[in-house]
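hiii, so i know i said id send this last week but things got crazy w the move. better late than never?? heres the sequnce for the chain we talked about at the cafe, plus the structure i predicted for it. fair warning i was half asleep when i ran it
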Amino acid sequence: SSATDPLVHYGRHFGQTVHTLCNFQVLLTNRILQMGELADTPEENFTAKERREHHVFQELLKSVAGLEERLIISLSYVFKVIRLSHILRQLTKGASGARGDDTKSLKGSVLDWITPRGQNLIPPLAHNMKVD
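okay and structure toks below
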């Protein structure tokens, strides 16, 4: 069996703890531009949205060991688009899995919350089934 790329795990963790609906393609593309073309631009010259995005990017760099180096290396090769798209695909796969995990456990949590202590719901609803 093939091992899962560690980026999937990082994307899952990031999606659960930092930014649930992160668009990694937009985030990385904009921040790579900032690392290159806009590197000398002071942060105070960016809009509030760009500063928030920069903060999320910094959190991503802290969360994913070696990501900054991987991005720099991917930009210096002829196949940079392929390498960058692999990074994006794996991070997105992990974050999507995190959202799926959250959704899957949501029904049980809601049922626990709405059911009065010591009583049963009428009609009864199963915790482990999506549709009743």
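btw The longest helix spans residues 80-114. thought thatd interest u
miss u guys!!
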